[in-house]
Structure formats: C-alpha cells, structure tokens
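Journal club side-thread
Mid-discussion, someone asked how the predicted structure for our own chain would compare to the paper's figures. Pasting it here so we can look after the session.
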Amino acid sequence: MTNDERPPDRAEPLLPSPAPARQRRQPLPWHRPKPAEEDPDALRRIKAILESPGYRLAEQDQDFLQRDEARSLRLEIEYLKAELFLQQRGIRHTIVVFGSTRIPEPEAARRRVAASRQQCAGDPANQDLARRLAVAERVLAKSRYYDIAREFGRLVGTSCAGSAGIVVMTGGGPGIMEAANRGAFDAGGASAGLNINLPHEQYPNPYVTPDLCLRFHYFALRKMHFLMRAKALVAFPGGYGTLDELFEVLTLVQTRKIAPMPIVLVGGRYWARAVDFDFLVDEGVIDPEDRELFWFAETARDAWDGILRWHRASGTPLDLGAR
C-alpha cells in the first residue's frame, strides 16, 4: 500500500470518566422516600415497612434464623465459620485433650477442702457436709491430674513450636481443659478451645489463644471439629462429658468411620474403676482388639512419647519441624 492509499488518521474516541463505585451525580427515584407534601402519611407508612420483620435481610434477621425451619442453615454456617477460622489460622493438626471441669489446680482444691472442713467443724452431725468434705478430699487427690495436663500441654506446645499448625485443642472450659491450654500458654505456643453455648452463664478459660477460641451451639458440630484434625486424643479423669467424647471416638475408630489414632487414658486406677473394659471383653460385647484401641499413661511424658511412637509405628510421624 502506497502513502496515497492509506486511510486517513482517525481521532481517538472520547471516553467518559469511570463511574463512581457507589455514588451517583443524579439520585435515582427510590433514593428518597415519598415526600410528605405528596402524602402527609407516607413517612409513617414507610417507617412501618422498614421496621417490619419481612423487610429485614434474612442474614440479619435473628428471629428468622432461630426458627426450627432454619436449623439446616444454622448447622451449615456453624460448621463453615469454625472451618474457615481454623484454615485461615493454619491449624492442620490437633492434639485433643478432654477431662473434668471439676478438677482444679491443687491450691484451689486445698482451699475448698479447708473451707469444707471448717463447715463440718461447725456442724459435725451434718451428714451432707461430711459427704461434701469427702468429695472435696477426693477432688484434691485428683488435682495432681491438673498438673499432669498442664505439663502435657507444655510438652506439646514446646515440641510443636516449630511445626506447621499442630496445636493442643480442648473444650475451652475450666479444670483439665484449662490446664492443657495453660501448659501450651506457658510454652509460648498457641492452643485452641471449642466452647459450647449453654443455658447458663459460662466463660472460656483465659489460656486459650483468643482467635482460636470458637463457640458452638450444636454439640454434634463441636464434636466434628474436635476430630477433623485430631492426631491424638488424651482423656483425663472426667464425668459425663469426658465419657461421652471418649466413647464417641472409640466407636468411630472401632467402626473405622475415622482412621485409628492414639487414644490415651491418663490415670489407670481411675479408668479401671470408672469403666471395666475387660468385663466388656469377657461379656462378648466388644472384641479383644477393641480393648487395644487405647492405652493407659500416668505421666505427661509417657502420654506424649507414646503418641509420637504410635505415629512413627503407623508410618505417620508428626511433623514437629525444627525444635
């Protein structure tokens, strides 16, 4: 093509300025309510509409979200919130610790025994006070498990300090759970707590890492999140809640709904009295191999070393990173 054959130069088109993301120069008709000069009662009616339950956004309507028909939505968002929080904070694996909320640190247990003895001294014939003193003394004897759980949390926190997302996880409450979180706190490590919403007032223990303390309405979803990342379960002496969680895990492993994991029961004498596992085998309601799904430990070091050996023997060594 010669110079004479080239098309004439065309001017660049004039582009309008980009529109603002939200603001307009000219308001749209619905940006303002109907004026009072057109209908004196319009503003009152609009106010009634804006305040009506039907006009609330569904995601902001607490009355709607609490209805029985919305339970599936609540289940979904409760699962999702916890999952996203743990993912975003890089939590890949957990060492789950269960145990009684009623086993305090030894000094607190000693104070309770002293107070109970004083009450008994003032009314020595009161059998109820005598029973309470006996229970307080047994709790004091078990308060050594608080120290063991605290030491266990410290061992895990120290061992996993250089790891990629391995933390102690508890139910976030007092007693043994507090002790395990506290041990990780002592070691300068993070730890998680899955608290449950109850009808009466309650508080999480102060040693859970703040952004790893999650609260649940549904026990089932809380249990799910206990186990989704679990690399071990350590159960200290406890009552209904501890037994519930322990047997849930034992059943899931027995039926292979979840992969086997180390299950450690701390305090052999307590557990032998609380549950006669050998009796269950002898009665034929569980198999001998089901009795081998867990073992007993007496110290924090024995429990933690046993968990590490179990994973090495299974070909799934824990990635503890640099220590």
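Post-session note: The chain has two domains: 78-105+143-313, 106-142.
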